[in-house]
Amino acid sequence: MQAARDLMDSGRGFGSLSLREVTRSAGIVPTGFYRHFQGMDELGLALVEEVGETFRETIRQVRHHEFELGGVIDASVRIFLDAVAANRSQFLFLAREQYGGSQPVRQAIAALRERISADLVADLSLMPKQQHLDQAALTVIADLVVKTVFATLPELIDPPAATLPAHATPQAKMIEQLRFIFIGAKHWQGLGQGS
Q1: How much is the pLDDT for 193?
Q2: Measuring CA to CA, how many Å separate 86 from each of 81, 83, 171?
Q3: What integer pLDDT is reported at residue 123 of this predicted model?
Q4: Where in the numbering of this chain does the HTH tetR-type domain appear (predicted)?
Q5: Cα 160 to Cα 97: distance, rounded to the nearest angstrom
Q6: Which residues have CB under 8 Å from 189's CB, separation 6+?
Q7: In whole angstroms, what is the distance from residue 70 CA to residue 43 CA?
Q8: Domain 40-187 = CATH 3.30.1490.20
């Protein structure tokens, strides 16, 4: 798996990697690869599972901070950014392959996104500031948060240009987008009820 990540770190997408390249990079023969994986799609699914576990561990750390306005969102984004920096190759794979690559890998990433959203719905339903929201509204909020994070991944992988103003950095944009979501949620009254 590390050999595939190393090849992707050089700028290649997972879908462009061949089994021979991966095995050569890993220092094994193709038959050695087949002892672990049936093919490249199965390797891709293992990579999704790996980044999924990293993502879930990061979310466990973020759960120690309640999603609220102000400093807690900032702290949660910082935890997430630290995880991305510490596991760059995993998140690079996730950022690239969520919209490209093989169908089984895209489907596995979509399923990961849905599991993360479902976990977030459960967390949000326990928060006092979200008690006025029904299950459907919580599902929409969780979906918005998760899609915001996933959509921002490509910008988080590489450091922003030094000339980028502070308010335009990926970190600042993510914080502001999450604040907009939660401010809207705080005031949401439902469709047809003054919204």
Answers
A1: 55
A2: 9, 5, 16
A3: 85
A4: 1-55
A5: 21
A6: 195
A7: 40
A8: no
**Can you give the length of the chain in residues?**
195
For residue 46 the two structure tokens come to 């293992």
The CA distance from 170 to 159, in Å, is: 9
Per-position b or e across 96-114, b if 16+ CB within 10 A of its CB: bbbeebbeebbebbeebbe
pLDDT of 77 reads: 87
- Render the chain in DSSP notation, one character per residue: -HHHHHHHHTT--GGG--HHHHHHHHT--HHHHHTT-SSHHHHHHHHHHHHHHHHHHHHHHHHTS---TTHHHHHHHHHHHHHHHHTHHHHHHHHHHTTSS-HHHHHHHHHHHHHHHHHHHHHHHT-GGGTTS-HHHHHHHHHHHHHHHHHHHHHHHSPPPTTS-GGGSHHHHHHHHHHHHHHHHHH---TTS--
Enter the tokens of residue 117: 């959203």
Contact 97/90 with Cβ under 8 angstroms? no
Quote the pTM value: 0.84
